[in-house]
Amino acid sequence: MSALADLLAFQRETEALAQVAERLGWDQETVMPRGAYAQRGEETAVLEGVLHARRTDPRIGEWLEGLDTARLEPADAAQVRRIRRSYERQMRVPLRLATALARITSVAQGLWADARAREDVAGFLPTLSEVVALKREEGQALAQGGDPYDALMEEYEPGATGEETAALFGRMRPRLVALREAILGSGRSAPVLNGRFDETAQMSLATELAGIFGYDWGRGRLDKAVHPFSSGSGQDVRITTRTDPADPLNCIYSTIHETGHAVYEQSVDAAYLLTAIGHGVSMGVHESQSRIFENQLGRSSAFTGWLAGRMVELFGEHTLSDPAEFDRAVNRVHPGFIRTEADEVHYNLHIMLRFDLERALIRGEMEVADLEEAWNARFARDFGQQVARPSQGMLQDVHWPVGLFGYFPTYALGNVYAGCLHSAMRRDLPQLDGDLARGDLAAPLHWLKEAVQRHGGLYAPRDLIARATGEPPSEGPLLDYLEAKFGRLYDL
Fold first, then answer.
1. How far does the chain reach from its first CA to its final CA, in angstroms?
2. What is the mean pLDDT of residues 414-421?
3. What is the pLDDT of residue 371?
4. 233: which strand partners?
5. Any alpha helices (H) in 185-318, and if so which ranges?
6. What residues form DSSP beta bridges with 232?
7. Cβ(195)–Cβ(321) under 8 Å?
8. Which residue stretches of 270-343 are H helix?
9. Would you state the pLDDT for residue 37?
10. Which spans of this chain does the record mark as coiled coil (predicted)?
């Protein structure tokens, strides 16, 4: 089947170029000089033009037409499905639009960072308006008469729709709100970790934790970034974190979270390297790995008991040296402003807010000029607090400036998937708490690799979770876990 061989060889080169483009993004976030944003925007646009030309090359259509899909092996069939899906989507987006988006979102990233530092919404609105206009155009081109938001969301979570996601959130919200109200009305307050914690020692602990959670240092590195992220796949997967001398928990759990993403990419079957299925199947599944690492494993009472002892060894006695108190501090519930710092109870409520706002923006039901007022009003209604400054509100996240509309709901979908996976893991690993109490992650890491990570893009997202757990994904296991965990912590 020469058509298959030609198609896969061509795709391998495209995947390699895409990795180069992703490395430019890593560089921009970590070590690029601040004065290079405009030039990087041009570089990114040129490379995106090359990638777009490859992804819309007419030969792809010819090769796809020449295939006898009934004769394909499962891995080849999965590659062909993903290549076909990408080709059909890319063909709907004009080169002019693809390069314009790459250019403006690269520049917007730097402008957003400056605007956030200055608390300057008005100065950033023209740039954000341009990004939204281009994303609306892209959504309309992809949707071909359908819902433009669904078309954008499809890029990050194939098979998901805005309507289904809104229904899921509608089912989750009542139990989340009821749990939050019960916790806040319980009369129990969780302790807060106080003190000064050396940032070099924090990075040392972050390095240790990444290794404990399975990160392969021979194929990765750890750096600092304003907004922690993971980048790359296969043999080059990089993570970032951040440090604050007054808040070591932020460094610890940012690192564990990004390690979840990275280990997923490092664990994909090596035979899939630089192929269409050689990386995580969706952002929802990706987030399930980072969230189960961070929360169900990293914030479990068993693991926090081990971590409390390690903190004393590294930093000396501190205000929360008692393991039980440390556990309560790590899992403290409070209605803060910042999504990335939100506890497990509030986190999905942050996502629901963003989902509703960005869906309205892309559908043309809201204009960018109205976004700040809409955000602040919704936050006050959902969280009972008034946003004091833009960095607490609409300027806190980088996603909209860089054009990631349709991405936010995958965070909550990832939590739902993680709830399903955790329930199945507990069923299969009755010794899990004993292992976690020793800081031993070998068993859960192996379970996740075999159930999810090694498959890469071989299966569709929901099918992958169903195969791993034996049940179709649903919100029930996540909500049951949250009610049980925080019921224990807050004596509900």
1. 63
2. 98
3. 98
4. 236
5. 199-212, 248-267, 283-291, 301-315
6. 237
7. no
8. 283-291, 301-315, 323-330
9. 87
10. none
The model's pLDDT over 94-153, given as tens digits with 9 standing for 90+, comes to: 999 999 999 999 899 889 999 999 999 999 999 999 999 999 999 999 999 999 999 999
Query: Predicted confidence band at 1 (pLDDT cuts at 50, 70, 90)?
Result: low
Q: 426: which residues sit within 8 A by CB, 6+ positions away? A: 432
3-class DSSP assignment, residue 232: strand
Neighbours of 31 (CB within 10 A): 10
When pLDDT is averaged across residues 337-348 and rounded to a whole number, the result is: 95
What is the side-by-side order of every strand in the sheet holding 222-224?
Answer: 222-224, 236-241, 230-233
Q: Which amino acid is at 4?
A: L
* The pLDDT value given to residue 448: 98
DSSP 430-473: TTHHHHHHTT--HHHHHHHHHHTGGGTTSS-HHHHHHHHHSS--
CB crowding 419-441: b at 16 or more within 10 Å, else e: bbbbbbbeeeeeebeebbbebbb
Q: What are phi and psi of 223, to 5 degrees?
A: -135, 175
Q: What is the pLDDT of residue 227?
A: 81
Residue 420 to residues 132, 373, 426, 430, Cα–Cα distance (Å): 34, 36, 10, 16
Residue 41 and residue 25: Cα distance in Å, rounded? 10
Say how far apart CA 439 and CA 297 lie, in whole Å: 10
Q: What percent of the chain has pLDDT over 70?
A: 100
Cα separation, 59 vs 128, whole angstroms? 36
Residue numbers annotated as active site: 258
Q: Are 68 and 1 in contact (CB under 8 A)?
A: yes
Distance CA 345, CA 330 (A): 13
Tallying the residues shown for the chain, one arrives at 492
**230-233 vs 222-224, strand pairing mode:** unpaired
Tell me the whole-structure pTM to 2 decimals. Answer: 0.95
User: Over the stretch 222-273, which tens digit does the pLDDT of each residue have?
Assistant: 999 888 999 999 999 999 999 999 999 999 999 999 999 999 999 999 999 9
Binding-site positions for Zn(2+) read: 257, 261, 287
